[in-house]
Amino acid sequence: MEIILKDDVKGLGYKNDIVDVKAGFGRNFLLPQGLAILADKTNRKITAENVRQAAHKADKIKGDAQAIADQIGDMVLDIRTKVGETGKIFGRVTTLQLAEALKQRGVEVDRKRLSFDQEPSAAGEYTATVSLHKEVKHTLNFRVVAE
Predict the structure, then answer these.
(1) β partners of residue 18
(2) What end-to-end distance do the CA atoms of the chain give, in Å?
(3) Residues 46 and 69 in one domain
(4) Measuring CA to CA, how many Å separate 132 from each of 90, 113, 121?
(5) If you ran DSSP here, which 8-state letter would residue 53 be given?
(6) Cα–Cα distance between 140 and 75 in angstroms, integer?
(7) Same structural domain, 11 and 45
(8) Which of 50, 106, 111, 134 could potentially form a cystine with 99 if both were Cys, beta carbons 3.0 to 4.6 Å apart?
(9) Are 120 and 55 in contact (CB under 8 A)?
(10) Tell me: the pLDDT tens digits for 16-52?
């Protein structure tokens, strides 16, 4: 089943992408949630026209995303958490904690745009990926340190 995404869907695609999904996933989740529309001839023409008209806006959005990536640069964040004697952390380090640490440094990033490359389980250095735009992804370094 071919559909046109109306919004970014993690692991599937970005807004206005035409993707092929299993019929049940499209019919039972994407279409009822308003995340996609059927990719018939009419909807393809409408989407193509909307993309053409929004091309200059897309350049500005990409530029803004690149500016945020440049602002993050080689920044290394310290995430404080409770750590046991063996160095293992209690609980979890979440993307919300990363977003808050970035906010304290003056960079606004939605927590949904952050993902861990490796799930932090002990004190040490880790990396996360910041997906700011479909063409702009940035690597964020952070350290998990004991409180």
Answers:
(1) 4
(2) 51
(3) no
(4) 30, 7, 25
(5) H
(6) 7
(7) yes
(8) 111
(9) no
(10) 999 999 999 999 999 999 999 999 999 999 999 988 8
